[in-house]
């Protein structure tokens, strides 16, 4: 090799590296809950399991999973719906430490508790969502409510997702519509990411960005098919939520699915705790951030309406003044995550936007 070539190699060392954690088994469809023993066997995760569930969700699906596994595994159970969320996570960790692996069977809080406890105890985690209400069912982050507002915590991405469309279709439609809104918010999340890339040099993952956009596009195109209590709808939305989770795993952060609309949602959670579901608030926020990006905000609003998700703060019991305050406070939430809401929105403009974009 010539001296020039050796010098070139020395100066252009490629030093990038990345660790992506993706689910190994994704099983979606009618009655697939029956396949949980096969999934556990396939993954060979150990002979003892902690099944984390809720109150209602334990009756709907948790007990079934317990019965399916009790013949072959040492089964312990944990109720994630009792007491303070952070305290529940601590107790779940103590229980997870005694088990070989963890299965979360339930809605948002159950899945979040199970995957944070799994992460902190270095256990594999299987996600069994009973509703398709947000993209946390397949992601490596979890949002936990605390008295000081929601905190985003590191969590174990699922080694498997088992999503039974019969169970998901029987959940209240509001949950499914909220999941759709969380996916539609990918559109504005991506615009914020690109903005931050151009303005601040934030690294961008083309793969994650494209997958996130494609997921939103597929859902957007199929908005007419999203109907209450239909297994086909549950199928479409669950696949989209898993796909969004994978986009986040590729990016190594929630960036592909979380921008200004999510900061608005978290600000609302602080200013009006308990009003509206996570995805609902993100959808409402996406209308404004899409407008600020100069995009087709009416199309966002139209698809949210089609799937039955709220499009105004009033619909989730939040008054205009609080929505304005949340828009202005959004920049104080995760300030390192730069979005269109960090670009100097004035209180006067925020007031005008709320009045103009949130008319019935
Ligand atoms: Zn979200």
From TrEMBL:
- Which residues of this UniProt protein bind substrate? 135, 182, 266
Q: Which chemical reaction does it catalyze? A: sn-glycerol 1-phosphate + NAD(+) = dihydroxyacetone phosphate + NADH + H(+); sn-glycerol 1-phosphate + NADP(+) = dihydroxyacetone phosphate + NADPH + H(+)
What does the UniProt cofactor note say?
Binds 1 zinc ion per subunit.
Sorted alphabetically, the keyword list is: Cytoplasm, Lipid biosynthesis, Lipid metabolism, Metal-binding, NAD, NADP, Oxidoreductase, Phospholipid biosynthesis, Phospholipid metabolism, Zinc
Q: Per the UniProt record, which EC number(s) apply here?
A: 1.1.1.261
What is this protein's name? Glycerol-1-phosphate dehydrogenase [NAD(P)+]
Name the positions where Zn(2+) binds: 182, 262, 278
Q: Which Gene3D superfamilies match?
A: 3.40.50.1970, Dehydroquinate synthase-like - alpha domain
Q: Please list the cofactors this protein needs.
A: Zn(2+)
| Intracellular or extracellular location(s) | Cytoplasm
Q: Where, in this chain's numbering, is NAD(+) bound?
A: 108-112, 130-133, 139
Q: What function does the entry list?
A: Catalyzes the NAD(P)H-dependent reduction of dihydroxyacetonephosphate (DHAP or glycerone phosphate) to glycerol 1-phosphate (G1P). The G1P thus generated is used as the glycerophosphate backbone of phospholipids in the cellular membranes of Archaea.
One Pfam family cited in the UniProt record for this chain: Fe-ADH_2
Q: In which pathway does it act?
A: Membrane lipid metabolism; glycerophospholipid metabolism
- What family is this? Belongs to the glycerol-1-phosphate dehydrogenase family.
The gene coding this protein: egsA
For this protein, the record's PANTHER family field holds: GLYCEROL DEHYDROGENASE, GLYCEROL DEHYDROGENASE 1
Q: Molecular function terms in GO for this entry?
A: glycerol-1-phosphate dehydrogenase [NAD(P)+] activity
**Record organism:** Methanoculleus nereidis
């Amino acid at each position: 090799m010539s001296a020039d070539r050796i010098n070139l190699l020395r100066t252009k060392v490629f030093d990038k590296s990345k660790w992506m954690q993706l689910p190994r088994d994704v099983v979606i469809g009618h009655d697939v809950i029956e396949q949980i023993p096969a999934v556990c066997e396939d993954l060979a995760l150990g002979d003892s399991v902690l099944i984390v569930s809720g109150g209602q969700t334990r009756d709907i699906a948790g007990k079934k999973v317990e019965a399916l596994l009790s013949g072959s595994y040492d089964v312990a159970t944990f109720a994630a719906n009792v007491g303070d969320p952070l305290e529940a996570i601590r107790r779940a960790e103590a229980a997870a430490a005694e088990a070989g692996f963890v299965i979360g069977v339930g809605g948002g809080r159950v899945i979040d508790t199970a995957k944070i406890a799994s992460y902190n105890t270095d256990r594999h985690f299987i996600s069994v969502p009973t509703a398709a209400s947000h993209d946390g069912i397949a992601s490596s982050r979890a949002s936990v409510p605390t008295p000081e507002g929601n905190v985003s915590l590191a969590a174990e991405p699922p080694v498997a997702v088992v999503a039974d469309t019969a169970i998901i279709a029987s959940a209240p439609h509001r949950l499914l519509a909220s999941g759709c809104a969380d996916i539609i918010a990918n559109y504005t999340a991506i615009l914020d990411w690109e903005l931050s890339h151009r303005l601040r040099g934030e690294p961008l993952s083309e793969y994650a960005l494209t997958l996130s956009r494609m997921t939103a596009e597929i859902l957007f195109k199929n908005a007419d098919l999203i109907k209450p209590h239909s297994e086909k709808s549950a199928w479409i939305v669950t696949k989209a939520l898993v796909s969004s989770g994978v986009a986040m795993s590729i990016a190594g952060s929630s960036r592909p699915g979380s921008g200004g609309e999510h900061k608005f949602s978290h600000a609302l959670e602080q200013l009006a705790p308990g009003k509206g579901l996570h995805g609902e608030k993100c959808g409402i926020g996406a209308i404004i951030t899409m407008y600020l990006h100069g995009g087709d905000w009416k199309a966002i609003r139209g698809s949210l309406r089609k799937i039955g998700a709220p499009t105004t703060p009033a619909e989730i019991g939040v008054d205009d003044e609080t929505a304005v305050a949340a828009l202005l406070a959004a920049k104080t939430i995760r300030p390192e995550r730069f979005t269109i809401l960090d670009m100097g929105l004035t209180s006067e403009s925020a007031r005008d936007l709320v009045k103009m974009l949130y008319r019935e």
